[in-house]
Structures are given as structure tokens and as C-alpha cells.
Design brief:
Radius of gyration of chain A: 18 Å
Structural class of chain A: alpha/beta
Oligomer: homodimer
CATH superfamily of chain A: Metal-dependent hydrolases
Order of helices and strands of chain A: EHEHEHEHEHEHEHEHEHHHH
CATH topology of chain A: TIM Barrel
Number of domains of chain A: 1
Largest sheet of chain A: 9 strands, parallel
Low-confidence stretches of chain A: 329-338
Helix content of chain A: 25-40%
Largest interface: A-B, 33 and 33 residues
Chain lengths: 338, 338
């Protein structure tokens, strides 16, 4: 891959280790958005943040925190992987709007409003019915805009997603999902949603999680590239990126935590089923971060220019975070410079 | 009032003191459902429970806890006010279904699924739109049924209320609200809801909070009695009781906590307005628990029999709690003895 590119993966949640960060380096990554919370409440989120500080201390040769979008360039210059914190749910703020600013100051740059289920803010994609943004949700969106916390609707239901895009003054993202046009999984996004993400100058990060792909673990790289080409034409080449949803070396217990949290007494299988309860098999062409160059090569063969490909591989993420992930972002937008 | 009656107030939240409990005695009360949480999370609910234990210790001549419905008779026999714990929101269980059983064991006999806003379980009456019970909400209802925690929908929106009644195997209550037919406040209940409460053998507790009454603080006792007579005819005399919503000696800060919790950066005025932000004036005929006998007398003049009046003043509450507030309640209902 072109060393001038800034390569960003828009979502990973692995059992973090030196080996995994070394694989990121080998795969040419400069920056990764990592999940720090699925259902973790405020106190538990602080535990996750503390664990990350210990990693930054013990593996300072490999990684560094990205508290602000400008830190991405610093990480690249230092030859380290920049780590962006994100939450896949609003559980870190519990019921307190004032925790939005506190969490942002602690480095939480991206937060989903919901994770599959109804939250205090909005509706998740696994509920039967979606009544859109709640009263609390509307206030939280304004506060996220104010402090530069990016709104991610990856696991949200359709009406809530469209209302969030409409209500937010900053771009809204889908960090990791694919177009339903490509594969009609519950977690993937309709043309209506991807068009709205494009119109609000957000970003769609393509997921490499097999449940989000046509033919699951047998999805071909060729089919994946077809999806990227189709989406680039529909959304614009500046509105797409990668959000691999790579979950390396995680035990079954972590999958069950994602799916069940503390809300269910009976096992919920999420995108799986009782007969297929475990992690999906990996794609043959993507099993860890060392496989990103292969994706870039395959996309290059589809005729993307070097500039466009650099933007797809990470430049669009840097641009999005610069516009939406800094405290000044909202004022910037209000003044008409976006 | 007839000393054989068991007189129960289905909702109070006052700045508890010896004086207030003495007023309860003077007014002939035997038992009061007290609110221990509006927005309190699990840890904060434990603080409230601890405060109650200290009251039980220091005022053991006046009050005793009602952990199970059978404790009401014990309290009456001892000449003490029985205190039933209830939460006006599901915040005490946070995101954890297993906290339902733990809270019940700590004495929480009644819990609302929502307080005005969307919760993780269902929708509150102040949201624009109501998508009914959530996935978590359905599981919590089953768990509340199992452990004998009574479902209260006083502050819930209509669809959620009807779905809870339909989904629950135990009777669902509205501890403190009035029919919209009498006064169309957002918090009052439609004929559809009160008919469903009657059909599920629940109970409606009449509120004496002026915002829930025709003409507010100027509502006459005569008008109140009209409402009781109308509702007794519609729901059945065994389906009604009192839930005064009496809030004595509470400062403005408590009203603001009820209305705003931690979810709003701007002041939400609830049933009030920016020009009417405080506690409403009291009714001339009901300002504290010493005024219950006057209500009983006025209702007696409307021709209720002594038996019916005793049931309205508390017997119906004892019956409801016996059916829905004990761990065996669900099995009892399943076996067809209700």
C-alpha cells in the first residue's frame, strides 16, 4: 500500500495483545477505532479505559491514544498505531447527560446510540418497532455535537437512524455495516439509510464480519469488491471506508456478553442461532490485520485511483473525524465551512 | 372511619418525619405505598433502603416494613403504619434482569416500568411516540411476575400500558392517576386503559395531586366524589382505591429531580410550566393524611355500602397486593384460583 496513505480500520474488538498490534503494523494500519464498551456502565467503562492506559504504558513502542483527530497524524509520524476509543452503546453515560462531556474528555470519540435493543436514547435494530429518538436522545445528540463525540448508528433501527441524521448538526456515521442491497442482514443498511448518511456527509465503514456478507464466511473478495464499487457509485467515493468488525481471539463468553449483556435470562443468539451459536468462521482472504493490503490490491484492480483508494483505506475516516470528532466541529459546521 | 377497615394509601412521597407518620395515624391509615426511587440507580436505591431501615429503627413505635402482603395485617395488629416500598421507574434494576429478584428480596414490592420518558423496558407518557414493550421489558415483566413484584404503569404511555397488561400474568396496576374522562391530563388514563386494568383485575388508585384533577387546586370534594362514582360504575367497585400522590414538605429541588433526573440540561417543567414551575397549591379538603376520614365521609354520602367503602379505602389494595405482590402469585393465577 502507498505509504503516504493514512490507513484506518473503523472498528475492531479483539483480545488485545502485542501480537495483534504487530499484525496491525504488518498490515499497514495507522489507526484503529476500538470498542471499549458494549454494555459496560459508567464504572465498568472506566475499568476498560484503565486497561487501555496500561496497554499504552506497556506497549508504547506500538500504540498511542488518539484523543483528538489531530493525534492520528502524530501516531503516523511516530510509526505507532493510533487507538480511537468508541462505545457500541450509550451504556457509558447511563442516565446522565453530563457524562457525555466527561466521557469525551476521557477520549471517547465515537458512541453508538443503541446496541441492537432499545436504549434510553433510541431504538436498536433487533426490536420489533422503532419510535425514533427519545427526549433524552435528542438532548444527548446536541451534547455529542457540542463536545465533538461522533454519533454511530451501526446497530440502530431505521427510523432512529434517520431521525438522528436529521437531528444532528454533525455528520452521523455507520462505522461497521454493509448495504442491505448486497446482503439483507438485519444489521445491514437500507438504501434510504445509506443515502441519508451520504447526504449528511457521514461515512459507511464496510464490515468484514461474515454475518454481514453475502454467503457468510464463503463470501469472495470479488463479491466484496463488487459491493464497494456499487456503494462508491451510490454514496460517493468520499463517503466510504472500512470498519472490519474484526474480533480476534475472543472467547465465546465475549460473544455472549455482546448478545445478552445483563438483559436476558435466556440465551439470545444475535445474528447466530441455537445451532450456530459461536463465532463465524473467518473469510479466507481476511483473518487479521495483515490482510488489509490484499483488499487494497483487489480494489485497485477495480480501477479506483490511488487518491480515491487512499481515501477509502483511511483518508475518508480522517476527514470525517476531523469534521465531527473535535469539540469545535459543530461551530465549524454552523459557520458554513463544511 | 370503621376501625375494621384496613386503610391504604397507594402512593406517597413526602419528606418523611415523625410528624408525618403521626398524621397518618391520626388519619386512620394502616399502610402506605411509599416511593423509594424516581431516577435512583441501583446503588442510590440501596441508599434509600438504608435510610428507611434507619427510620424503622428510630421510629419503631410508628412504622414497620411490609416486605410481603401478609405484613399489612401484622402492621395493623401492632397499631403501626405498614410501609410498602415502590419505585416509580425501573432505574433500580439498571440494565440487569437479575436485579429484579434481588430488589424484591430487599422489599421492593411495586415498580413502574417507566417514569414519563422512554426506559429500557417501555415508553413513558411524555414521549411523542410509543413503540410498546422492549425485548428487555418483556423479560422483566415475566421476572416481576415470577418474584411477585407488582407492575405499575402510572407514568407510562398508552400502548406500553396495554401491552404490559396483555403480557403480564399478574394484574397490572395504576397506583396514582385519574381517568382522562374526568380530567384530560397527559398523566391520566383513557377509558381503554382503565377498562383493561379492570379486565386484568388490577387497581386504579385515585390521585389527589392537583395537576391530575379538574380545576387543579380548586377541584371540589364533590367533583372528586363524582369521579369515584363514575369510575366505580365503569371499572367495578373492587377495582378502585386511593393513591394520593401526597408530597409533603418536599423542596423545589425534589420536584426538579422528579422532572429532570439527570437526562436534561435544560429545565423540564413536567406537568407545570416555566410560569408555574413549583409545587401546586394543596386542595382545601386534602393537605395531609389527616384528611382521609373526610374523603371517606363524602363517599359514604354517595351511597357506597360500608363494605364497599372499606374496600375503596384500602381493602382492594390488600386484595390486589395479596394476588400480585407475593412470589407465589403467578403460580396461584396459573392454577386458576384468581
Amino acid at each position: 500500500m502507498n505509504p503516504d496513505w493514512t490507513v484506518v480500520d473503523g472498528l475492531q474488538y479483539s483480545a488485545w495483545s502485542r501480537e495483534i498490534f504487530e499484525q496491525m503494523h504488518e498490515g499497514g494500519l495507522d489507526c484503529v477505532h476500538v470498542t471499549i464498551a458494549y454494555h459496560e456502565n459508567t464504572r465498568e467503562t472506566l475499568i476498560r479505559l484503565g486497561e487501555w492506559n496500561q496497554r499504552f504504558e506497556s506497549m508504547s513502542d506500538l500504540i498511542r491514544p488518539v484523543f483528538n483527530p489531530s493525534d492520528i497524524a502524530v501516531a503516523k509520524a511516530e510509526g505507532k498505531i493510533g487507538i480511537i476509543f468508541g462505545a457500541q452503546n450509550c451504556s457509558p453515560i447511563e442516565d446522565d447527560i453530563r457524562l457525555v462531556e466527561l466521557m469525551r474528555r476521557l477520549g471517547l470519540m465515537i458512541m453508538q446510540l443503541t446496541y441492537n435493543n432499545q436504549s434510553l436514547l433510541a431504538c436498536g435494530c433487533y426490536e420489533d418497532d422503532d419510535s425514533g429518538l427519545t427526549r433524552f436522545g435528542k438532548q444527548v445528540i446536541k451534547e455529542m455535537n457540542r463536545v465533538g463525540m461522533v454519533i454511530d448508528m451501526s446497530h440502530s433501527a431505521e427510523r432512529s437512524t434517520l431521525e438522528a441524521i436529521d437531528y444532528s448538526e454533525s455528520p452521523v456515521i455507520v462505522s461497521h455495516a454493509n448495504p442491505s442491497h448486497f446482503h439483507p442482514a438485519l444489521r445491514n443498511k437500507s438504501n434510504t439509510v445509506i443515502d441519508a448518511i451520504a447526504a449528511n456527509e457521514g461515512i459507511l465503514g464496510f464490515s468484514l464480519y461474515p454475518f454481514h456478507l453475502k454467503n457468510g464466511p464463503q463470501c469472495s473478495l470479488d463479491d466484496f469488491c463488487d459491493m464497494v464499487v456499487w456503494t462508491a457509485e451510490r454514496m460517493g467515493v468520499e463517503r466510504i471506508g472500512l470498519g472490519s468488525d474484526l474480533c480476534q481471539n475472543q472467547p465465546q463468553s465475549v460473544l455472549e456478553w455482546m448478545r445478552n449483556g445483563r438483559w436476558s435470562k435466556t440465551m439470545d443468539y444475535g445474528e447466530g442461532s441455537s445451532g450456530n451459536a459461536g463465532w463465524p468462521d473467518s473469510l479466507s482472504w481476511f483473518s487479521d490485520s495483515r490482510d488489509f493490503p490484499g483488499i487494497a490490491s483487489a480494489l485497485a484492480n477495480r480501477g479506483f485511483s490511488d487518491t480515491d483508494l487512499g481515501n477509502i483505506m483511511g483518508g475518508n475516516w480522517v476527514d470525517l473525524l476531523t469534521r465531527a470528532g473535535a469539540p469545535a466541529a459543530r461551530d465549524h459546521l454552523v459557520h458554513g465551512n463544511s
